[in-house]
Automatic annotation (TrEMBL):
This is Mobile element transfer. InterPro entries: SpdB. It comes from Streptomyces alkaliphilus. It comes from the Bacteria. It holds the Pfam family SpdB.
Amino acid sequence: MTLFRRFRQVGRYGPVRVGTATDNRGREKHTAACTAPRCGFSAEYDTRSAAELAARTHRCSAV
Ligand SMILES: [Zn+2]
């Protein structure tokens, strides 16, 4: 899972993981990414709560 190496505070909501990372300009980015092999959902948000909401409400088409 090299994709998640830089992430802190990784949480799980069903198949979706949410992680906080700092980009190369020092800003925090919050990413929600689905771990289901055929789903491919992933998105970035400005706030942690937005990413967690997206993770919780994600309807996985691959399960
Ligand atoms: Zn999914």
